[in-house]
Amino acid sequence: MTRETIAFIGGGHMASSLIAGLISDGYDPADLIVSEPDADKREQLARHYGVGVTQDNATAQGAADVVLLCVKPQMAHAVCSGLGLAVTTKVPLYISVMAGIREASIQAWLGGPRPLVRTMPNTPAMIQAGAIVLHASPEVSPGQRNRAETIMRAGGLTRWVDEEDLLDAVTAVSGSGPAYFFLLMEELEKVAVELGLDAESARLLTIQTALGAARMAMESSLDPKELRERVTSPGGTTECALQVLMEGDFSNLVARAVRAAQARSQALSTLLATHP
After folding, report:
1. What is the rounded CA–CA span in Å between residue 50 and residue 30?
2. What is the three-class DSSP state of 119?
């Protein structure tokens, strides 16, 4: 594996999950450095992963070939502006996991066109089971594109989109998506207990059913519609339950929810760009 130094600006949950995934993939912890203002977090990261740590963003960037921007969106303007001022001769590849911050804003705050990949991960990336979508700015070379994908694959499945605006749709589908499934699981658990099952059984049966359905969908050559039809016997219990969901306009409700999330993502992106 080619040696390169990767700097993480921000040492929170997403940075930690990617660090864990990279080390599992064979990266040397000595090639990873984290800039984190919280001393306790720095100590934990150094002790647990063996990575380098600092509280100075410029120091981390100066040593790096790739810089991952892992700070909260509200901190983006200050952090990126500081990094832009600190660039001397070597310009790294930047990868942003900051939700809602547009490439144009990041580029402007960094001080000009920079090779930049914007990503939209979701929370299961914290256990290397995420769905991560990437978009590259025109300055990103094919080699840098491959590098970004390799790094983000440490958090799970990766896909690319050619238009940055599609990241709002990604946010609505996979970014917010885990919460949709958690809500369904929450309601299934609740009704299972109401039907007489003990709480532990209700929880385990719900979780295993969700896991099994996801694995079947992932591993099968059939699409979800065909899988649903195969387990829905005419006149059976599943058909009866699904009929109730359809009578409640389930399909339209899901569409409305996802479109609402997309609209909110678009609005937040505009707000964050104009109010750094």
Report:
1. 7
2. strand
H/E element holding 165?
none
Closest CA relative to residue 22, chosen from 60, 49, 54: 49
CA distance 122 to 129: 9
Cα gap 234→103, rounded to integer Å:
51
270 closest CA partner among 117, 135, 93, 73 = 73
Q: What residues have CB less than 8 Å from 37, skipping those under 6 apart?
A: 55
In 3D space, the residue among 249, 250, 262 whose CA is nearest the CA of residue 173 turns out to be 262
pLDDT grade for 100, boundaries at 50, 70 and 90: confident
Whether residue 154 contacts residue 197, with contact meaning beta carbons closer than 8 Å, is answered with no
Six token digits for residue 199: 């709480």
- Which residue in this structure is represented by tokens 């740590």? 53
Distance, in Å, from the CA atom of 32 to the CA atom of 223, rounded to the nearest integer, reads 40
Pairing relation of β-strands 130-136 and 116-120?
antiparallel
CA distance 103 to 7: 19
Please report how many Cα atoms fall inside a 13 Å half-sphere around the Cα of residue 217, on the Cβ side: 11
pLDDT band at 24 (very low <50, low <70, confident <90, very high): confident
| Long-range CB contact pairs, 264-270, < 8 A, 24+ | 265/100, 265/167, 265/168, 265/171, 265/172, 265/175, 266/168, 268/99, 268/100, 269/100, 269/101, 269/102, 269/168
CA distances from 225 to 104, 215, 222 (A): 39, 15, 8
